Amino acid sequence: MSAAARTGTLLSVVVPVYDEQDALPAFAARLRPVLDGLGVRYEVLAVDDGSTDGTAGLLRALAADWPELRTVRLRRNSGHQAALTAGLERAVGDYVASIDADLQDPPEKLAEMLALARRDGLDVVYGVRADRSSDTAFKRGTADAYYRLVRRLVGRHVPAGAGDFRLLSREAVEALRALPDQPRVYRLLVPWLGFPSGEVRYVREERVAGSTKYPLAKMVRLALDGVTGFSAAPLRLATWLGAAAFLTCLLLLAFCLAAYLSGAAVPGWTSLFAAVLFVGGVQLVCVGLLGEYVARIHAAVQCRPAYFVAEDTGRRAEPGDGRAELGESGAGGEEFGDRAG
Known about the structure:
Residues 12-176 form the Glycosyltransferase 2-like domain. This protein is an alpha/beta fold. The chain folds into 2 domains: 9-212 and 305-336, Spore Coat Polysaccharide Biosynthesis Protein SpsA, Chain A (Alpha-Beta Complex), CATH 3.90.550.10; 233-302. It contains 11 helices and 9 strands. Strand 2, helix 3 and strand 3 (69-74) form a beta-alpha-beta unit.
């Protein structure tokens, strides 16, 4: 019997949070009426990704008046996708939704997502950003370039404009949990599963408070993880760069031979210097691309957990469901996240 069947929970909402003490009060004030209005049993899993501000204390204060709120605190900052993994692995609902606490994705759409999934028998409902005018021009431009790139390399099944605001059925969640991928990029993993899916479109709003937790460096890292995890195109790019360097060297050699046979005085150091620079640059690019894949293999071989749980205010998992903790929940018990390989 599944955990959802035992608890009768229809909907779990996973909320990764990191230093969101300014946004949490407004987020809770909008999320709770939506969930209470559904008329179903639900839970909210706030995954504290090693926050350094007052987020942990604020979550405890909110939970004192909101029994459906459950906090999972990670021992250190493990990243947004790892926090999502921790929430997905502990959610017990028949449906599991994920949403950030900055209110850029409207909680009111959760009711529409759940209704669409139940009516049409869908396993995945994506929240698709139909209007991103609240974002900066740079943010819109980089996001558009990212989705163009992944859709070209990974496949057209990746919905453009869909981030980590989505609803999953229990079957989809269990399929994700069975995958060994590390690091995980859910916006590519979920479409790859091929479950029946639908979309709910919405206007992306401005962040309610605080600053973004996804600066340019993390966006680039996420894009690189997605591309190297789902496509061998960068390796093929290295092959084509090597072929281009070889052809260029052949042309330079032909030019040098023609100049020598014609008796023209051509300074040898210029062409030699240009050829060495070009070939050396291409070699460094190729070695860097190979290094990205070797790094992924290295991480998979190490089998290190994606996260460590310091505290879970919810009940312990039942024996045999694959999620039993090593220590008592809420009493400093340590639990490891899913492992690669």
